[in-house]
Amino acid sequence: MITLDEIGLHHGTDKSSSLHGYLEYYETLLKPFRKKPVTVLEIGVAGGESIKVWQDWFYNPDTRIYGVEIQDRQLPEFDKRTQIFITDATSPNAVYDISRVTGPIDVFVDDGSHRSDQLKAVLSLWWPHIRSGGVFIAEDLHAQFFYPWTDAGEVKFTDSLSPWFDRLHENGMNQCGKPTVGDIEEIIMRKSLLVLKKR
């Protein structure tokens, strides 16, 4: 069986083992979604390589794949399950308009600007639109250690996550390890990646 990384290498995405190596991890993370009719949204379309990967990996005919790209680029032709929005994914108006089209999102990938300020905005604005059981992924967090992805004196994206960890722990409620009222199932930190699973 062809692997997700092999699909990525075929389409030339930097998520593959040719550079970042994310797809080897995503194979396990995203396998439960593969056959289901899911909604996938990625910020940062660039040349469309990763959109092509998602089209091949999520093969259910009722799956819907959305891309958000701030630049009006020349893109390849995508299959009929795919729609691209040319807009700023950190604009509340754009989030409202897009989410009315997509409905709840199962797999969300932020491969946009990698700027700390925009990563914070994307997580805050888009988290309410992730479906229960869905995942939010932020990529290329190595960029946040450098200017201009984090401005001088600005708090890095990962350093701003303390309230999200408090939210995961339900601020100490019920003094047990069983989730009760929280909406975060799990937070996973890996080299250059953040994954939040929604409860």
What do you see in this structure?
This protein is α/β, with parallel strands linked by helices and 199 residues long. The chain has a single domain (38-198), classed as Rossmann fold (3-Layer(aba) Sandwich). Helices cover 28% and strands 22% of the residues. It has six helices and seven strands; from the N terminus they run H-H-E-H-E-E-H-E-H-E-H-E-E. A seven-stranded mixed β-sheet has the order 3-2-1-4-5-7-6, with helices on both faces. Strand 6 (184-190) and strand 7 (193-198) form a beta hairpin. The model has no long low-confidence stretch (mean pLDDT 96).
Helix/strand structural class: alpha/beta
Strand runs, count: 7
Distance between the termini: 31 Å
For CATH, the homologous superfamily is named as Vaccinia Virus protein VP39
CATH architecture: 3-Layer(aba) Sandwich
* Total domain units: 1
Describe the largest sheet.
7 strands, mixed
**The CATH topology, please?**
Rossmann fold
Rg (CA only): 17 Å
Q: What is the N-to-C order of secondary-structure elements (H for helix, E for strand)? A: HHEHEEHEHEHEE
Extract low-pLDDT stretches.
none
CATH class: Alpha Beta
Strand order of the largest sheet: 3-2-1-4-5-7-6
- Helix proportion range: 25-40%
Q: Write down the overall geometry.
A: globular
Please give the count of helices. Answer: 6
